[in-house]
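Contributing: when you submit paired examples, paste them exactly as shown. First protein:
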Amino acid sequence: MEAGSPVDDQAKALFGRTIFEIRGAYKHFGGAIALNYADFTLKSGEIHALLGENGAGKSTLLKVLAGVHTLEAGTIALDGKTFIQGSPRMAMLQGVTVIYQEPSLFPDLTLTENVYIGRQLRSKTGINWAEMKSQTKSLFEELGVNLEPSRLARGLSIADQQVVEIAKALSLDARIILMDEPTAALTKSEVNRLMLVMRRLQEKGKSVVFVSHRLDEVFAICDQITVMRDGATVAQAKVSDTSINEVIKWMVGRELKDLFPKMESTIGEVVLEVEGLSSTSEFADITLNVRRGEIVALAGLVGSGRSEVARAIFGIDPYDSGTVKLKGKILPGGKPAVSVESGLALVPEDRRQQGLFMTASVSRNIAMEMLNKLARSGLISQRSEHSLTQEWGKKLQIKYPNPKAPVDQLSGGNQQKTVLAKWFATNPDVLIVDEPTRGIDVQTKAEFHRQLSQAAASGKAILMISSELPEVLGMADRIYVMHEGRLVKELSRQEATQELIMTSATGQGGGA
């Protein structure tokens, strides 16, 4: 849209006007209070950050605004009128749309069908597929991505799934767009592209509620901050009037002094050895090793092949050539059960789709890889499951209503802790963790880092995949960098820098 157009002028005239106001929001699930009389105010043309630890109530508040949940107490006003709750369709009709933290595409539909699901464009003869495909392509171009509207959603990376969700939200032309961790799986360039889109939305007078645990993004793009803790609103401020350290203190109730609690550990013999691993069109000639007591990071951009390598090492995906050795013995490719029995564990990138059974209980998820050991005469002992849950729930500080509660009732951070508990319970020799802190708050990140550091100090070998360079630099003893399916650099902890890693990850550096 050209600058100075009537629509732009009209939007600018509305800037700064309160359009959404929540007062005394209360909601509970079982014995857990999700919203504890929280307040929230959103203005027109504002990019507003909603911050807090996992379990602070952010996602519940967004789901109330999106029509998924209904408040038990409190009021919501949209343009001074009562906001109709409890219906996602009514929320959209009132101009509110949401992009959730976890993508929810239909894998066997095309990207065009996913963008226009339930609201297909019509022509005189039926569904106007050509127009929908054309508009979907335009949306992808606006986002700066090269996705084919006719391809199926199945097989898309987390980053590309998120882009499709964003395109879907943009196609609704909503007045208020709720973004729950939209950048969690995006590269820096993709994040920058999303920020440009958010600015364009703002210029048109639209409002964005932005949930992110990456505080540098919040301070780069947002105008206003609301911080929640234990379901309540604890602070509201302009971004220009505060600092990252102050926001962290509001979020956790105290200063967080050590985000990367790296412990000293004795580096022992090689436990995991990968030689010449190759898979057509995915990765080639991957050679690496991990020793006892060592945290080795696999760094690189999204799409560089890191997750594919991890899945092949674990045995989920087949490979064409090469070997994987665990404690000197070759693991057969394509047999994850053998890998687990041999002492290998994998915390996957997508916890909801690959790491957990979302409708199963917390206890069953934690015990899932231990069922054979917990069984007595072919029957699973619920007492043993409960005991295992208590043990690892306490060690990892997992917050859940009760052990029988479905894991989908937990916050994202507590779901991630549950995946880690499941694999820690198997007492593995090697633990592969793929984006272990994606989409979780700073307090939980610090706890995750402490657990990984303790595991290494106890003699376990850890292979960590991470897109967050501060995490890589703060936790890794050695770093392998990937670019377009190949290892291009190996760095020691002492020589690694953000600039050197990024130079190699983008294909600008020298060889390993």
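Second protein:
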Amino acid sequence: MFRIPMSGQTITHQIEGKFGAARVLLKPASPGTGIIAGGAVRPVMELSGIKDILTKSLGSDNKLNVIKATVNGLQSLRSPSEVARLRGKRVEEIRGRSVFDELET
């Protein structure tokens, strides 16, 4: 088991998970989007508690490798506070303005 850094009900940033020949692209989504995922990725997203996400499975379609690539991507996510600490900056400097902030104004 591991923690997944989240921003609301989505992930904090775009990431690509890899395992063998399987690659999975995970992108944050605006609220209300839902889980846009197919095959073996959808159950992993549902079990992880992520409600809004866009995914694309690339490369191999071997279900076990796709699941492992998805988990690899989720484990590679970093929280804004972790990135700020590594860069020696404040969280506000790291976050900046996102596309979702512009939609809300």
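If you have annotations for the second protein, write them as plain sentences, like these:
Residues 63-76 form the longest helix (14 residues).
The chain has a mean pLDDT of 89.
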